[in-house]
């Protein structure tokens, strides 16, 4: 083959590569080029962070960049100054070294795994062409420009352009599961010009260039040109990417274009955006407040120390090691001394403990069998360990529809040809807004493999050989990118889109069978007769074009362009004649399909003049080989082809809802979460699916629909909608189209800087001026005001970019926590834009999963992920942080109070060993267990009472109020822990049998340390609600280990433990004194009485819904344990018992979507009204009454959460909601319902 022309090589710009140039069979020039542009020449990859030499300095630098670690390093330096520190540096060094060591060990283990993985991959073997022969080399030795030979099942070592394959059609199959998670095979092709190069001689003599884009991370885009005699366009159809695997192909040959770090796989392996929870950000603010408290405490003690030195210091000169005689200098030094002594107020172990708890919570999510999908053998996975508690604070859920709410199992069910509808009725989507009950999916029979959409009417039409019908199915059999495979005499289809596969299978059922495809031809069988077409051009479908077009030449030489796409796009491409003659009837049929919730596509065709086509094909080929703005040039040329279409017909595809989708959405809405569904479907389709999945309800009608086509119309619709929601007291839902969304959505930075408009005088100007931005802002605020009043929002006809923009808008403007869930590549931008992204392992690959923070197999698992695990995680983290601050306040304030009795000298009340081990040994394990395993109510009660979830979004369990309460409790317990033994000592103490007074400083120190250890652990026991054997073990470890360690340290000879000399014997003398034990029990009694009084006061007089549900659950258990009453004479008592039963709830997923439940258990008569989560702001009655029907009656306790219960036997003729709606007085209710219990009457009074 002749050598290519000597093309000029473009130089780099600012040292960066603008065009990748590969010289075939010219290693020397390839090496020079890669060095010139600083590109990766070899194929070695490195994902590890450290080397053996750089680990220690690099890791320590990273750790000391954290504020807490750096703070304690500074304290350690201060402790080395004798004039300041009253503590040994060991007290700070031990916990600091422990934290740094644990973190370093974890980092080293993670990096060691990366090193081993890198070594395994780099040492894989592959075959390359060197000096005219095939040799085997390691992957790391492959360089740019190498010609590589791959065999079936081989992994692709680098990004390469296919030159030839073993197949006659010049194609090959690859599996991209390791790249994008998709398991279906994809087809790639070699250029026709190189398809015959299969031996060493022809390949080694190949001369030319490959020019393509510089290295980038776009997996689905490759623009290049192969320069031999003539330029040959290259696209992603000609490229195999690193991470793929060759399948069903004997061998292929390819040239390496990107190696090592330049491969698209490595370019996509960058670090994901670090997400921080709101608790993290809140925690940082609280830590700053703690620093302020610490600063104030140190300042107070410094001022008092200076004053004491000025007044009394001279009297103690002989006892004190004075560093200066100046009182101000001494006070300044004491400031730093107290900064060291009170340093545990900001605990170094806080962040380490938080990470350990999050890891434990993530493991529990993965181990939950209730979120295991047996059909696909898929478990829930927490792909990040930093966002668990954020799951319990979600305000908005943004969901995709196809594959997320639906099964993404498409079935071609109906079609429109010539204005007539053919096919069978849809199984779902029949739900009209007026229906009162949801469709029972279990009653839908799963069609067998042999069942088709063809009914008797259509069978007769096929028998007539109608040209319109034939043309319709011929288009379906030809216009697609489906791959075929012959297996045991049958044809199996594989497609990247389930819609395409359903359409091709529908054509097959009608007798139009897609048989074979090569790189140039496509063959179909029409009623047993084979037809061959030459495949000339394919313009692929994408989210911007929303259509696909293929140009074919039939055997008779005619040229035809076949196209299929979204109806709103295809309508604009029809000829004027077709738009007036054929479109009205087809549009009416499309509306009928949409009412049934079916997915639709419009089919068109255009006969092409041969001369016109040849001219167009030349321009299209030029656009395909362009290396600059290739997509824009192709789109521009395609517009000339995709116009003046004739209408062929329309298709309707059914996609069924997944199991328990209505129940899941209903439960999330009861939890106070606003649910938005974002879909690309037509407005009618989206609305009917919304009613089917219970996102929309009859009580929300009429819906607020915003579908304006210009700015003023959208503004008017939003204004009317806002007036409606403000004037009516009922639930509302908003339906908005993608076109209307373009006006409230703010422009991107690029749009603001580049979008131009043409003025009336012919000049151009920036579109987004200050005035225009202000107008857009007004519409945006109007849109947000309407959505704030709506219970649910349905966005239809939206693009992937709009999905992300909607999420970003709500997240930033409403300062709310947003969760996005989807299953496909078009949902990735939305998932990344949300605070939390959830990916569903669906049929569209794993792109969404790979971009997500959590992955689940089915949408129904989302309610358990949020309402159970999310709420638990938020509860656990809140309990941990509140307790952690409390115990450190108690610890520090004992030091603080002691300062008033030691001349403000920063003398420590605890010994050095206790200071170092308090947070590590005596009080760490129990709270870690609570942080991982704590439950307020079990999972069944959580799902049965989704209103409990509201504590998270409202941040009730961990806010400034709870933080200040923890501070107050710590200060209070610190007062008791110090002053009870201190006053006892001042009163004289007692004498032991040896005549030694048991009231010295060392005894005081010992008793304070003992009391602190026991009090903080007992306080945790009071707060713990869920007890396991692990709780019992760890809660005893701290207090008991105190006796063990102190007994070893201070009861033995001081020659063995050199550091404990001052405290030698204090253990034995202290515990042998009745004085110590009296102080011990008195102080613990005072602290625990206060804690128990607080606990029971809140539970009885200020109960929150959690307390109420726990009491209901206990009462239900007691009722279940009582024997059933069968005697007629006891039936009245049984009736009373049923009425007193505190847990009464039912689920009714009807059109009204109401839940009956009694929210209030039996309580003292003093309680008349119970506030929801005792706070200053008014309770959210809306979620308890508007969305629920509280019906008094009996419920079978065996009914599990999430299932439809048996019929409820009401004991009251009216429901609470009915009473409220009809303004019936509570007294009237009592007269009408004499069997109402006190708790039920309280509930009625409250509502």
UniProtKB/TrEMBL annotation:
Predominant localisation class: membrane
Record's keyword annotation contains Nuclease: no
Keywords: ATP-binding, Cell membrane, Magnesium, Membrane, Metal-binding, Nucleotide-binding, Translocase, Transmembrane, Transmembrane helix
Ranges of biased composition (kind: Polar residues): 1114-1134, 1183-1193, 1204-1215, 1230-1240
Gene Ontology MF terms: ATP binding; ATP hydrolysis activity; ATPase-coupled intramembrane lipid transporter activity; magnesium ion binding
UniProt domain P-type ATPase N-terminal: residue ranges: 25-92
Protein residues bound to ATP: 400-402, 500, 541, 564, 599, 679-681, 797, 803, 826-827
Entry EC number(s): 7.6.2.1
Cellular component, GO annotation: plasma membrane; trans-Golgi network
Region of interest: Disordered: 1113-1134, 1177-1240
Domain P-type ATPase A: 123-184
Membrane disposition: Multi-pass membrane protein
Binding site for Mg(2+): 400, 402, 823, 827
Catalytic activity from the UniProt record: ATP + H2O + phospholipidSide 1 = ADP + phosphate + phospholipidSide 2
Domain P-type ATPase C-terminal: residue ranges: 849-1104
Gene3D superfamilies cross-referenced by the UniProt entry: Calcium-transporting ATPase, cytoplasmic domain N (3.40.1110.10), Calcium-transporting ATPase, cytoplasmic transduction domain A (2.70.150.10), HAD superfamily/HAD-like (3.40.50.1000)
Family (UniProt): Belongs to the cation transport ATPase (P-type) (TC 3.A.3) family. Type IV subfamily.
Name of the protein this chain belongs to: Phospholipid-transporting ATPase
Protein's organism: Monosiga brevicollis (Choanoflagellate)
């Amino acid at each position: 083959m002749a050598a290519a022309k000597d093309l000029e090589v473009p130089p780099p710009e600012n040292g960066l590569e603008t065009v990748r140039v590969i010289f075939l069979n010219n290693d020397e020039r390839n090496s020079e080029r890669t060095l010139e542009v600083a590109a990766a020449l070899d194929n070695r990859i490195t994902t590890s962070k450290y080397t053996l030499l750089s680990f220690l300095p690099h890791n320590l630098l990273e750790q000391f960049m954290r504020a807490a670690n750096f703070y304690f390093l500074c304290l350690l330096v201060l402790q080395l100054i004798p004039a300041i520190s009253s503590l040994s540096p060991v007290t700070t060094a031990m916990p600091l070294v422990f934290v740094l060591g644990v973190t370093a060990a974890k980092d080293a283990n993670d990096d060691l795994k990366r090193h081993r993985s890198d070594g395994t991959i780099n040492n894989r073997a592959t075959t390359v062409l060197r000096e005219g022969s095939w040799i085997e080399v390691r992957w790391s030795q492959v360089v740019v420009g190498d010609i590589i030979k791959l065999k079936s099942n081989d992994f692709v070592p680098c990004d390469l352009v296919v030159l030839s394959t073993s197949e006659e059609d010049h194609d090959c199959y690859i599996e991209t599961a390791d790249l994008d998670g998709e398991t279906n095979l994809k087809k790639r092709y070699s250029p026709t010009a190189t398809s015959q190069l299969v031996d060493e001689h022809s390949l080694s003599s190949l001369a030319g260039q490959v020019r393509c884009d510089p290295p980038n991370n776009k997996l689905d885009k490759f623009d290049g040109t192969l320069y031999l005699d003539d330029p040959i366009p290259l696209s992603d159809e000609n490229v195999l990417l690193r991470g793929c695997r060759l399948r069903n192909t004997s061998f292929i040959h390819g040239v390496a274009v990107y190696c090592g770090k330049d491969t698209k796989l490595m370019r996509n392996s960058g670090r994901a955006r670090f997400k921080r929870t709101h608790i993290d950000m809140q925690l940082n603010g609280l830590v700053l407040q703690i620093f302020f408290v610490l600063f104030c405490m140190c300042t107070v003690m410094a001022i008092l120390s200076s004053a004491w030195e000025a007044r009394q210091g001279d009297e103690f000169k002989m006892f004190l090691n004075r560093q200066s005689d100046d009182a101000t200098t001494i006070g300044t030094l004491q400031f730093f001394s107290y900064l060291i002594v009170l340093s545990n107020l900001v605990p170094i172990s806080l962040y380490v403990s938080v990470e350990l708890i999050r890891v434990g919570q993530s493991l529990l999510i993965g181990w939950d069998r209730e979120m295991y999908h047996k059909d696909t053998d898929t478990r829930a996975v927490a792909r990040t360990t930093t966002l668990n508690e954020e799951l319990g604070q979600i305000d908005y859920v943004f969901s995709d529809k196809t594959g997320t709410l639906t099964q993404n199992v498409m079935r071609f069910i109906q079609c429109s040809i010539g204005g007539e509808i053919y096919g069978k009725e849809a199984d779902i989507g029949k739900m009209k807004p007026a229906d009162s009950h949801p469709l029972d999916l279990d009653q839908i029979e799963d069609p067998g493999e042999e069942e088709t959409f063809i009914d008797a009417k259509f069978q007769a039409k096929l028998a007539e050989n109608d040209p319109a019908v034939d043309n319709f199915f011929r288009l379906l059999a030809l216009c697609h990118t489906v791959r075929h495979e012959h297996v045991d005499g049958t044809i199996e289809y594989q497609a990247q889109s389930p819609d395409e596969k359903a359409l091709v299978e529908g054509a097959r059922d009608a007798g139009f069978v897609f048989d074979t495809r090569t790189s140039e031809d496509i063959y179909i069988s029409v009623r047993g007769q084979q037809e061959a077409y030459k495949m000339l051009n394919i313009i692929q479908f994408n989210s911007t074009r929303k259509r696909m077009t293929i140009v074919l030449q039939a055997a008779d030489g005619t040229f035809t362009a076949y196209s299929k796409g979204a109806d709103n796009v295809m309508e604009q491409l029809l000829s004027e004649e077709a738009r007036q003659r054929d479109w009205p009837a087809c549009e009416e049929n499309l509306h009928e399909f949409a009412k049934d919730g079916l997915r639709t596509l419009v089919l068109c065709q255009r006969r092409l003049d041969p001369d016109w086509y040849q001219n167009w094909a030349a321009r299209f080929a030029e656009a395909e080989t362009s290396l600059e703005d290739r997509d824009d040039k192709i789109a521009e040329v395609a517009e000339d082809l995709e116009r003046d279409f004739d209408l062929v017909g329309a298709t309707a595809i059914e996609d069924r809802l997944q199991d328990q989708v209505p129940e899941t959405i209903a439960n999330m809405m009861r939890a106070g979460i606003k649910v938005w569904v974002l879909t690309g479907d037509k407005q009618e389709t989206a609305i009917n699916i919304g009613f089917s999945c219970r996102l929309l309800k009859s009580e929300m009608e009429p819906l607020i629909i915003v579908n304006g086509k210009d700015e003023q119309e959208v503004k008017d619709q939003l204004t009317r909608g806002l007036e409606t929601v403000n004037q009516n007291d009922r639930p509302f839902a908003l339906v908005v189209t993608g076109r209307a969304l373009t006006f409230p959505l703010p422009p991107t930075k690029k749009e603001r800087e580049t979008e131009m408009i043409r003025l009336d005088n012919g000049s151009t100007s920036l579109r987004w001026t200050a005035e225009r931005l202000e107008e857009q802002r007004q519409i945006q605020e109007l849109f947000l005001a309407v959505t704030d009043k709506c219970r649910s929002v349905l966005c239809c006809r939206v693009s992937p970019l709009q999905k992300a923009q909607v999420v970003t808008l709500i997240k930033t403007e409403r300062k709310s926590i947003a969760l996005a869930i989807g299953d496909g590549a078009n949902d990735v931008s939305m998932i990344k834009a949300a605070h939390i992204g959830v990916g569903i392992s669906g049929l569209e690959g794993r792109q969404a999963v790979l971009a997500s923070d959590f992955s689940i197999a089915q949408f129904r698992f989302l309610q358990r992920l949020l309402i159970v695990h999310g709420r638990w995680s938020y509860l656990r983290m809140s309990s941990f942080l509140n307790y952690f601050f409390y115990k450190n306040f108690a610890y520090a304030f004992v030091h603080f109070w002691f300062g008033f009795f030691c001349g403000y000298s920063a003398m420590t009340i605890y010994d050095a060993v206790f200071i170092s081990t308090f947070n590590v040994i005596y009080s760490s394990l129990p709270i870690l267990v609570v942080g991982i395993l704590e439950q307020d109510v079990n999972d069944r009660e959580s799902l049965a009472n989704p209103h409990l979830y509201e504590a998270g979004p409202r941040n009730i369990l961990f806010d400034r109020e709870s933080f200040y309460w923890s501070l107050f409790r710590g200060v209070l317990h610190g007062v008791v822990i110090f002053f009870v033994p201190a006053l006892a000592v001042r009163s004289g103490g007692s004498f032991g049998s040896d005549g030694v007074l048991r009231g010295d400083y060392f005894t005081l120190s010992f008793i304070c340390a003992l009391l602190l250890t026991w009090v903080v652990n007992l306080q945790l026991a009071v707060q713990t609600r869920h007890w396991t054997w692990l709780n019992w073990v760890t809660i005893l470890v701290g207090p008991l280990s105190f006796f063990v360690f102190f007994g070893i340290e201070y009861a033995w000879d001081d020659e063995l433990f050199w550091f404990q000399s001052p405290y030698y014997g204090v253990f034995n003398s202290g515990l042998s004194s009745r004085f110590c034990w009296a102080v011990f029990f008195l102080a613990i009694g005072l602290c625990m009485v206060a804690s128990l009084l607080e606990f029971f006061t809140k539970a009885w007089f200020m109960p929150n819904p959690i307390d109420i549900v726990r009491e209901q659950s206990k009462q239900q258990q007691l009722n279940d344990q009582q024997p059933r009453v069968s005697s007629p004479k006891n039936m009245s008592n049984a009736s009373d018992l049923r009425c007193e039963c505190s847990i009464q709830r039912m689920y009714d997923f009807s059109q009204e979507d109401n839940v009956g439940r009694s929210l209030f258990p039996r309580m003292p008569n003093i309680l008349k009204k119970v506030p929801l989560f005792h706070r200053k702001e008014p309770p959210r009655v809306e979620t308890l009454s508007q969305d629920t029907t509280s019906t008094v009656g009996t419920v079978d306790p065996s009914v599990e959460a999430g299932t439809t219960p048996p019929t409820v036997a009401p004991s009251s003729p009216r429901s609470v909601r009915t009473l409220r709606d009809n303004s019936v007085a509570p007294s009237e209710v009592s007269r009408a319902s004499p069997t109402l219990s006190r708790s039920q009457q309280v509930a009625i009074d409250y509502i």
